[in-house]
Amino acid sequence: MAGVIGREKKKCFEYLLDEQARLLEQHGANSNITVFNDPRPDRCYANFDKSLCWESTHLGSTGQRICPFSFCPTVPGCSYHVQRTCQLNGSWTDPIYSQCIDVIKKHPQCIVGYCHSCPDLLRELVINVSLTLSVISVALLLTALILFSLFKSLQCRRLSIHKNLASAFVLRFAVLAIWTVLQSTNAFQDCSAFVPLPLWNIEWLCKTVIWMVIYFQVASVIWMLIEGGYLYSRFTVFAMRHSEGPYAAYVIGGWGVPLIVVLVWTAIHESKSRQLRGSFCWLPYAQGAHLWILSGTMGLALVLNLLFLLGIVVILVQKLRAENTAESRKIWRTIKSF
Q1: Are 211 and 159 found together in one domain?
Q2: Where is the G-protein coupled receptors family 2 profile domain (predicted)?
Q3: Is residue 116 part of a domain?
Q4: Which member of 45, 46, 179, 203 has the lowest number of beta carbons within 10 Å of its beta carbon?
């Protein structure tokens, strides 16, 4: 709404300049007559009523403007106006904003305000699908974790890495679902004002949730890398060995490395946010050159994981070819013996 009022005020100033130029042209450049002291006006000059700009109107006419709100084009029947009459003495009556007041009280779905945004089916579909899939993922991963823990005969280093990976994804999707709900319900905004105000007293909670969303996202990708690296090592480095690396190294790499990366990003982003007036809860956080601290880390981990996968595929293909060749030779020798 503030943007609408600003544009209206600027528009009125431009109208007054044009009308003043017309008066000077009509009465002469040396005339002292202005739009504010014209003794015999033939119209009501442009006027700003602190909300809307009223263009010059003929005496006795009634002007009409759309209420100074951002209306939702997707909601039908949202057309509400303000009326103002130009009196015969060249002065304006007070504007009648009764319809605009009715919009706020009875038809809030028509306007953007009080934390209400215009209906967007695509946005709502994305939010609902994301929330639903997050809940389903958490449920299935928790089931897998329970099964992994019940059967003690299955416990091994590979399964331990599986459980850490599943835990990272459980926490990632759980926190993401919480963040989605908090955002969609405007939990960190004061919606009693037309222009929503951030709740600065709980900004720390908002930042905590965002931090956890980012941390578990990075951690899940790093654990994917550890899973791929471990599987690749079983085909190459440790293929003929019974000893394995210390489990603590995997834990430190899977949970410690993301912690360091996210803490570095947090320090830089917090410093950048303090330089921006009105910045609340690091939003939007997916911006700035320092975003590469996160995206670069996850991108490198995914690329390395892809290389591990390709390496495993190459090794498997080579082994299959070797086995097929040996088997073909046996069959050929058997045929020749006959």
Answers
A1: yes
A2: 11-104, 126-338
A3: no
A4: 203
User: In this structure, what token pair is assigned to residue 124?
Assistant: 């709502």
For residue 189, the SS3 value is strand
- With 0.90 as the threshold, say if the pTM is over it: no
H-state helical runs in the chain? 2-27, 98-106, 121-150, 157-184, 203-235, 247-251, 257-274, 292-337
**Same domain as 192, residue 284:** yes
What average pLDDT score do residues 173-178 get? 90
**Peptide bond before residue 284 is cis, with ω within 30 degrees of 0:** yes
Query: Which ranges of 107-202 would DSSP assign to H, the alpha helix?
Result: 121-150, 157-184
pLDDT of residue 300: 95
Q: Give yes or no: residues 102 and 126 share one domain.
A: no
Token pair of 115, please? 């934390």
Residue range(s) defining the domain that contains residue 292: 121-336
Residue where one domain finishes, among candidates 79, 110, 141: 110
The pLDDT tens digits for 262-293 are: 999 999 999 888 888 778 888 888 788 888 99
Q: Which of 313, 309, 211 is nearest to 264 (CA)?
A: 211
Length of the chain: 338
